[in-house]
Amino acid sequence: MQLSGIAGPESGFLPEPLNPDPVPAPDDASIDGEDLHYRYPIDSDGPLATVGPGLLETFAGLHSQSTLEAIPEFALKHGVLELCEHGTPRQHTAVRTSTRKRGFQGCPPLGSRTKGGHRYAFEPLARWMIYSRRAEALLRITSDLTMGGATSAQHWEWLGLSEFASAAPREQREAVATVVGRWLALGHARPRLSWGDAGPLIQMRSPGVFGRIGLSLLQSIAGAGSFAICSSCGRAYAPARRPSVGRRNYCLECRTAKIPIRDAQRARRARLKEFVGKAAV
What we know:
Elements: E1 28-32, E2 35-41, H1 55-60, H2 70-78, E3 95-96, E4 104-105, E5 113-115, E6 118-124, H3 125-147, H4 153-158, H5 169-186, E7 190-196, E8 199-205, H6 209-222, E9 228-229, E10 236-237, H7 252-256, H8 259-280
Antiparallel strand pairs: 1-2, 2-6, 3-4, 5-6, 7-8, 9-10
Helix pairs in contact: 3-5, 3-6, 5-6
């Protein structure tokens, strides 16, 4: 089964899952100490999270940004993780409140309180870092397995599965599938059957950004040939064609900056130096 709403390779972004449910975004988000503080309007219509390309790759790169300000910027655009006291998205115990009214009940967000027409809450920045690293680890491990290379012990450590660093590829693939399944369950992401005049349609839906990230991971890993890791900047990107095993590959930004030419010149000089050194012996 193919899912609709997947961006093509020419877009330069990883796929964005089809999710027709509008997800609210905070109208204010800022860092206070070790936490991200945010607020939503209670009664009035507030901003909606942006649905578009770049969600997964942006989230996966948050932990490596030079400033933490990238997190509130992400939250204002795409929404917050809505973490509860368990350190997971509050939707992990979500139950649909009504078939007519959109909404979910679950754990309340950390520090949830109402004041002046707004609902306030916060979530630890450390948890954002953990989930961001896990998203990047899943992409990098999948890329390594797809290209037939060895996976990194650090990436398995980011997933809390260090024991799989030396496991067989089949076991590693099963571990990736289990982690993604767990991510989807925590985000309450699931398929929904919609049946209109055009016929039955399967839609992948989630009530929050955490589940949306999980759906992007699902689609990216299921179509592993549709993304790669840039050999220069290390970011995930959608290549025009599947990279060759054992060859360096570059994202559009690095190709525009002529990084492949720079690397080729460096490699050529290194080979020449090695040749001259051997000839002098």
